[in-house]
Amino acid sequence: MNTRRVAIVGGNRIPFARSNGPYAHASDQDMLTATLDGLVERFGLEGVRLDEVVAGAVLKHSRDRDLTREAVLGSKLAPDTPAYDIQRACGTGLETVIAVANKIALGQIDVGIAGGVDTASDAPIAVNEDLRQVLLDLNRAKSLPSRARTLTRLRPGQVVPEVPQNSEPRTGLSMGEHTALMAKEWGVTRAEQDELAAQSHQRMAAAYERGFFGDLITPYLGLERDQNLRPDSSVEKLAKLKPVFGGADGTMTAGNSTPLSDGASSVLLASEEWAKERGLPILAYFADAQTAAVDHVHKGEGLLMAPAYALPKLLDRAGIGFGDVDLFEIHEAFAAQVAATLRAWRDPVFARERLSQDAPLGEIPSEKLNVNGGSLAAGHPFAATGGRIVASLAKALDERGSGRGVISICAAGGQGVVAILEK
Amino acid sequence: MADLYSQLMRMPVTSTVGKKIGLPQPVELARGSSEVGGRVLLGGAGRVAEAAARVLKAMGADSATALDDPVRESAARAGLDAAVFNPEAPADQKFRALVFDATGIVDSAGLVELQRFFYPTVGRLQRSGRVVVLGDGRRALEGFTRSLGKEVGPRGVTVNLVHVDEGAEDQLAPTLRFLLTPRSAYVSGQVIQVGSGSERPVAGRTALVTGGSRGIGAAIADVLEREGATVVRLDLKDADVELDITAPEAPEVLAERFADGLDILVHNAGVTKDRTLAKMPEDRWQSLMEVNLLAPERLTDALLPVLRDDGRIVCVSSMAAIAGNAGQTNYATSKAGLIDLVTGLSLERGITANAVAPGFIETAMTAAMPVGVREVGRRLNSLRQGGLPVDVAETVAWLAGSGVDRNVVRVCGQSLLGA
Questions:
Q1: In A, residues 215-274, which contact B (CB 8 Å cutoff)?
Q2: Is A298 noted as a catalytic residue in this protein?
Q3: Which of A41, A323, A388, B223 has its CA 20 to 30 A from that of B245?
Q4: Which ipTM value was assigned to this complex?
Q5: CA A257 to CA A183: how far, in whole Å?
Q6: What is the pLDDT of residue A151?
Q7: Does B65 reach chain A within 8 Å, measured CB to CB?
Q8: Domain A175-210+287-422: which CATH class?
Q9: Which domains are seen in chain B, by residue range?
Q10: Strands (DSSP E) along A120-272, which ranges?
C-alpha cells in the first residue's frame, strides 16, 4: 500500500495553568478555540477550509459532545471545516495526531489539525445519580398521580452532586496510588524521583530562556509561561515535601507528581505537497505509532506500564533499537512512572517474561530524555499533553537538523500510546 | 510437639520474664511443606546462579533479585520471573530465603560481596527462613555461613553452604530444594558438596530401613513411603522383616530377600551402652559395636551386589561421632566408623553413599536422659531447641533421592559441639 509522508508543520498551545488558577472560568471550548486561533494566526490559516480538525478532552461536559466542531465554528478557520472528537484518557492528544496523520498518509486528506484540551477547574459536575433516576422516572410518568408518587422519592441527600473521580473504576485506587504500587514494585527511590522532577523544571526553564517556546505558545488570559514551572526548583527543595501517595513511607510528593492543570494544545499536520505549496516549514515527519494496554485489574500489573509494552513493539516494527533514537519524550505523569518505565526497559527479566525478547531495550541516557522539560514542569491538562509533546519534539528535531525521536504517553485504564517522529 | 521449656517461652507471662532475664526464646520451626513459603531473593553472579534460578523457576517460588544486578541476566535466561528488590527504596519486602551465588568471588578481595549482599537483607529474613550460599570450595565461605548461622539461628533461620563442582551445576536442584523448604528445618551450619551424580527420585524405588519400627527409623520409613517408595522395615519385632542384624545368617537372609534388587539401604539400627571407658568391659564395648558398625558393614557387603543402578546407601551416624561425648567412647567409635564405611566404599553404577549425623533429637532415647543434661543438650545449638525424628528422616530422604555422594550431613540445628 502506498502511503505518504506526514509533515508536522508546527504547533500552538496556551500556557498550562494550575487548576483553579487563571483559567478557572475558562471552559474546554474557550481554551481549544483560543488555541486553534493561535495556530491559525501563526500559519495564516484565517478563513481557510482545512480537511479535518480532530481533538478531544478527558473531562467533558455533556454539552460538549461535539466539542471540536463547536470550537472550529467559534474559531477563525472556515466554518465548513469538518471536525470530530476522540478520547483515550491521557493518550487523547497523541491519538488525535495519529488520527489526522493516518488520513494524510492514506491520501484521504491533505491537511488537518490535531489537538486536545482539559480543565480540572471547570469540571463537569453532574446531578446526583439517585436524583437523576428520579428525574428520568418523573419524565416517563404519564399521569399526575404517578408523577406525585415519583416525587415522594426525593431525599435531601440527593443534593450531593456527582463529581468526576480521579480513580480507576475497577480498582477504586487513584492514579497516584496505582503509581505508588509501581514505585514499590520497581524499587523506585524518592531521590531519583526528585532528581527527575528538578531536572524537568530546570530544563524547561532553560528552554524558555533561550526562546524555544516562542513559536509554540500563545499567551492566554494574562499567562505567558506555564504556571507550574519553577525555574529555581532543586532536589533539596523537593526533598522537603511530604509524601502524598503510598502511605507514610511513600516516595511520591506534590513535587514529583503532576498537578491538576488546565490548558489546550494543537498541531498542524499536512502532506509534504500541501506544506510546500504554502511555503510552510516542515519541522519533522510523523513516522509511526503504537498502542498497548496492561491488565491492572486481574493480573495486578502496573497501571501506567503500558508504554513499556507499546514502545518495544513500535521499535521492532521500525527495525530499530534505542541506539537509533536521538530524543526520548516520556510523559511525566509522575516521576515514579518514568523511573519504573526506564527500569523495565533495561531489565532483562521484563524483556524475557513480559516482552518475550532476548535482551532488554537498554538505558536511555539522561541527555536524550525530555531535553526541554516535561509534564512535571509544564503541568498536565490531560488531553493537551500529547499535542504539547509532539510540537516540542518536532521542533527539537528541527533544531538538530536531523534525527529520530520517540514519544511515550501512559494513560488511565492501563493504556499507553507511543509514536516515532523523524527529521 | 514442643518441649516444656519451649511451651513456657511461648506463653505470655513466662515469655516476658524469660526475655527480661535473657533466656533463649525458641521459635516454632516450620516443617513438612515442600514449598519455600515466601519470597526468595537471589543474588551473586557466578556460574551457579542460572542453575539456581532454574530451580526456583521449577519450584514456582516467588523470587526477587536486585535491579541492575548481573544476576538478573541469569534469572532471565532461566525464565525466572523475578521481582525487583531495591534496598534503597522503602518497601516492606521480607524474604523467606536468601540464596547467594559466591562462585563469582574469584579472590579474597571479592569476599566483600558477602557483606554487600547480606547486609541490607539479613534483617528482612522471616522466621524459619533459609540462607543458602553456593560456593566453589572456598574455605572462607564456611567461616561466613557458620557464623551467620549462629546469628540468625535463634529466629529459626538455617544457614548452609553448598559447594558445587565445576560442571555439576545442573545437579543442584534436589539439594537446593531441600535446603530452601521446611523439610530442612533442623539442618544448619552444614557444608554440602554437590558433584556430578544425578538425582534419582525416591518414588517407585524399594528401600530397606534397619531399626525401622520405631524412633528415627520409623520416621525415615514413613517419609520414604510418603515420597512414593516401597519400604521394608527391619527390626527385632513389629516389622516387615523381623531379624537380628547381628545374627550370623542375617546377611544371607537379606541378600536372598532382595535377590530381585534393592534401591535404597538405610543403616539406622543402633544402640547405646554408655559407660566411661574405665568402666567399659569388652563385652559391653563389643556388643554395641556389633549392632552399630559390624552388622552394617556385613550387610553392605552382602547387599551391594543386589543394589540396583543409582542405588543409595545412607548411614545414620551421630553428632557424638563428630564431637565426642563422655561415656560414649563405644558409641562414638561405632558411629564414626559408619562415616569410614561411607567414605571407604568403592562404588560404581551411579550408587552413592552418605551419612546423616543427628544431634539432639527428641526421641524415647533422649526422653530417658536426666533433666539437666537433656535441657542443656536441647539448647546448645543455634536453633535453641531439639530436633524431631522427622527432621532426620527428611534429610535421609533427600540423600536417598539426590545425587550427592560421600557427604556427612549433620541434623543438629548447628550444635555448638563439634566442627
A1: 249-251
A2: no
A3: B223
A4: 0.85
A5: 12
A6: 86
A7: yes
A8: alpha beta
A9: 36-194 (3.40.50.720), 206-411 (3.40.50.720)
A10: 243-245, 252-253, 261-271
